[in-house]
Specification:
By secondary structure, this protein is an alpha/beta fold. Helix content is about 40%, strand content about 20%. Helix 1 (about 10-25) runs parallel beside helix 2 (about 40-50) and helix 3 (about 65-70) runs parallel beside helix 5. The structure holds nicotinamide-adenine-dinucleotide (NAD) and uridine-5'-diphosphate-4-deoxy-4-fluoro-alpha-D-galactose.
Length: about 350
């Protein structure tokens, strides 16, 4: 079976993808600098999968480490999760974001070229559509300048990979545009473990539920949406992980650069998320309405028809599972991996 290098494999989406890869009998090599993750996640991945993987602690910006990995292992393809992802922080320290997300990706692709490895699945984001189009968003719509530096790095890397693929037909890139990943592994043993105050809705809700935070602030209730709160496309992290295995199989067969939206196609409001979380899990989430958060858009959900048609992928989990599994993980691990 093929051997896959997974950068950022100890992180939230990476760890779930490692389980999916091991289940599909791939050999897995993880490179992660642990700047936003714990080695414990990979211990648990191996326990859940009943199989082992190789872990190398290192940075994608370090060419020496990359060359060593490509020399030591016969890597067939790369899944590239490593990077920084906090939208607000990217406005404070843009150069750090350019360094990890853009220079890091260039460094990785250069090492791949030196090693003769030409297949890569890239973690992109729905943010590359900017706020130029109405939802559902489809891949034929032109990308637009995101309104934050994090999103900008995703757009730059996407465009760079497109140009690279156009210059040399050996390259094969999948650009997976994630919508809003939530949920956790059904066992509750791995999940999202943000450092400090969570930026994203779901970990904030679970931390209120577990008593770590006092109340949820709902950013804006005057949007042009059915209940006035923001609408997003929440996708279970295990479905997202499985999309990587499907994209990998596709890329092992095909050349070029292709983008796929990975979402459920269903828009859900912040209030619906809060209310459903309370109902399904039997807990109360204290909340207040707060002003809109800078940079947020009213509505963002996917047209996922291309991924379903071309990747043979189909989301399996419902909103109820996402909410149940997020809570299951947080309840079992109130301090995350610590
Ligand atoms: P995460 O922070 O949990 O995982 C990223 C991993 O990369 C972490 O383990 C971190 O330690 C590692 N890392 C960071 N910089 C590194 C470097 N220079 N070298 C080596 N390792 C490094 O985040 P995640 O939610 O799992 O996201 C994975 C990818 O998906 C990221 O590229 C992110 O931008 C992208 N993405 C995430 C979301 C989301 O909402 N979670 C949405 C769209 C896209
Ligand atoms: N929200 C709140 N309160 C919170 C956190 C979020 O009301 O404490 C609201 C937001 O205003 C938004 C919704 O919940 O309406 C979802 O917010 P998230 O921060 O969870 O997710 P975003 O849609 O803002 O961002 C996600 C990813 C980014 C990606 C972006 C683009 O986290 O990486 O989607 O699609 F760039």
């Amino acid at each position: 079976m093929a051997t896959i290098l997974v950068t950022g494999g100890a992180g939230y989406i990476g760890s779930h993808t490692c389980i999916a890869l091991l289940a599909a009998d791939y050999e897995v090599i993880v490179l992660d600098n642990l700047s936003n993750s714990s080695p414990e996640a990979l211990q648990r991945v191996q326990k859940i999968a009943g199989k082992s993987l190789q872990f190398i602690e290192g940075d994608i910006r370090d060419s020496r480490v990359l060359d060593q990995i490509f020399a030591e292992y016969a890597i067939d393809a790369v899944i590239h999760f490593a990077g920084l992802k906090a939208v607000g922080e990217s406005q404070q320290i843009p150069l750090t974001y350019f360094d990890h997300n853009i220079s890091g990706s260039i460094n990785l692709v250069q090492a791949m070229q030196r090693a003769g490895v030409f297949r890569l699945v890239f973690s992109s984001s729905a943010t590359v559509y900017g706020d130029a189009h109405p939802s559902p968003l489809n891949e034929n719509m032109p990308t637009a300048m995101p309104n934050n530096n994090y999103g900008y790095t995703k757009l730059v890397v996407e465009q760079m990979l497109e140009k690279l693929a156009a210059s040399d037909e050996r390259w094969s890139f999948a650009l997976l545009r994630y919508f809003n990943p939530v949920g956790a592994h059904p066992t509750g043993h791995i999940g999202e473990d943000p450092q400090g105050i969570p930026n994203n809705l779901m970990p904030y809700i679970t931390q209120v539920a577990v008593g770590k935070r006092e109340k949820l602030s709902i950013f804006g209730n005057d949007y042009d949406t059915p209940d006035g709160t923001g609408v997003r496309d929440y996708i279970h992290v295990v479905d997202l992980a499985n999309a990587h295995v499907c994209a990998l199989k596709n890329r092992l067969q095909q050349q070029g650069c292709r983008a796929w939206n990975i979402g459920t196609g269903r828009g859900i409001s912040v209030l619906e998320i809060k209310n459903s979380f309370e109902q399904i899990n039997g807990v109360t989430i204290a909340f207040e309405f707060a002003p809109r958060r800078a940079g947020d858009i009213a509505t963002c959900f996917a047209d996922n028809a291309r991924a379903i048609a071309e990747l043979g992928w189909q989301p399996q989990y419902q909103l109820e599972d996402m909410l149940k599994h997020s809570w299951n993980w947080q309840k079992q691990n109130p301090q995350g991996y610590r």
